[in-house]
């Protein structure tokens, strides 16, 4: 028997692990193209981490973005929704929607830039815990894994 685990709204849930005041609020975690891709100074602040593996697991991180300016460029709101909490989804916010459209649907939503280092760290911890319990675990993405529990019997 093969299990497939896919954590729902993982990035929003991850943000709530470090700030419980976010629980119950509509959250939108959004991303943009790398705003520092041609900035050599910012490139020096990138960190490479390879604790995890999998098809869609990022390994290169910036220091945390400044949320007050991350979504603005030339007085326009930029970016797309990476993850919406269930509270935001009830307003119609969906993954891959533009941030501008999402805010139009859910004005009270709190907008957060992604913190991939946090998500990567929590994902790795989850994998470690599950690897202790499931005989064979394969990470598929930052919030998905397959586990082979064929013949597995829990210890009494
Ligand atoms: Mg998921």
Write the layout of secondary structure elements.
Blueprint: E1 2-6, H1 10-18, E2 27-31, H2 40-43, E3 47-48, E4 60-61, H3 67-70, E5 72-73, E6 76-77, E7 80-84, H4 86-89, H5 99-105, E8 110-112, H6 116-133, E9 136-141, E10 144-148
Parallel strand pairs: 2-8
Antiparallel strand pairs: 1-10, 2-7, 3-4, 5-6, 9-10
Residues 6-8, 10, 143 line the site of magnesium ion.
How much β-strand is present in the residues?
A: 15-25%
Output the radius of gyration. 18 Å
Strand order of the largest sheet: 1-10-9
Sheet having the most strands: 3 strands, antiparallel
* Oligomer classification: single chain
* Mean pLDDT across every amino acid position: 85
First-last Cα distance: 21 Å
**Low-confidence parts:** none
CATH topology of the domain at 9-115: MutS, DNA mismatch repair protein, domain I
Which class do the helix and strand fractions yield?
alpha+beta
Number of strands: 10
Principal-axis shape? globular
| Highest CATH level, the class of the domain at 9-115 | Alpha Beta
Count of separate DSSP helical elements = 6
Named at the architecture level, the CATH assignment of the domain at 9-115 is 3-Layer(aba) Sandwich
SSE pattern: EHEHEEHEEEHHEHEE
Fraction in helix = 25-40%
Listed once per kind, the bound small molecules are: magnesium ion
């Amino acid at each position: 028997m093969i299990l497939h685990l896919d954590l729902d709204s993982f990035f929003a849930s991850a943000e709530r692990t470090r700030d419980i005041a976010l629980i119950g609020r509509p959250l939108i975690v959004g991303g943009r193209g790398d705003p520092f891709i041609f900035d050599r100074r910012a490139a020096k602040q990138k960190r490479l981490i390879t604790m995890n593996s999998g098809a869609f697991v990022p390994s290169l991180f910036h220091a945390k973005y400044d949320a007050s300016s991350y979504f603005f460029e030339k007085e326009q709101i930029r970016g797309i929704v990476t993850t919406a909490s269930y509270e935001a989804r009830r307003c119609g916010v969906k993954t891959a929607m533009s941030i501008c459209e999402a805010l139009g649907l859910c004005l009270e939503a709190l907008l957060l830039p992604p913190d991939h280092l946090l998500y990567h760290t929590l994902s790795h911890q989850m994998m470690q815990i599950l690897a202790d319990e499931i005989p064979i675990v394969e990470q598929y993405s930052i919030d998905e894994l397959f586990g082979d529990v064929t013949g597995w019997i829990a210890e009494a």
